[in-house]
């Protein structure tokens, strides 16, 4: 994720803002709050919902992350390989799944063979990585010339 995010960061710029970033954040918070409230007795669902909700609130109101718009934008593109790889791992197109989920611990709702919670769990993992990436970039800034050389070499 950080490499993909970084590529979008370079092409779109650090000032990239979604017009409806607050609405998108509140939609994610609302969905996760409802998932956690309704399925509070399912471990995978409640930990995923609580984790993403708390971390989004932390980023939005404590850290005041200015890069959330760019994250949402890059994450939208990362959902394509996510659905392909996770779909195969959970059994789409193969005779037996490589990864098996216990429906007693999740909502039991699936996108093809992927538990719905995986979308939010994946988002939480990518948000954690991106926030560390941004923290390190802020703490150890890279000179613009060096940054462009690194990207053009790949």
Radius of gyration in whole Å, from Cα?
A: 17 Å
Q: Given the C-alpha coordinates, what overall shape results?
A: globular
Order of helices and strands: HHHHEEHH
**Major sheet description:** 2 strands, antiparallel
**What is the SS-derived class?**
mainly alpha
Q: Report the uncertain regions.
A: none
- DSSP summary: helix tally: 6
Q: Tally the structural domains.
A: 1
Instruction: Give the amount of beta strand, in percent.
Output: under 5%
Report the helical percentage: 55-70%
Provide an overview of this structure.
There is one protein chain. This protein has one domain. The chain is globular. Helices cover 68% and strands 3% of the residues. The protein is built from six helices and two strands; from the N terminus they run ααααββαα. The two termini are 16 Å apart. It has 154 residues and is mainly alpha-helical. Helix 3 (43-63) packs parallel to helix 5 (117-139) and helix 4 crosses helix 5. Strands 1-2 form a two-stranded antiparallel ribbon.
Quick overview:
The protein has six helices and two strands. Strand 1 and strand 2 form a beta hairpin.
Key structural traits:
154 residues; mainly alpha; two-stranded antiparallel sheet
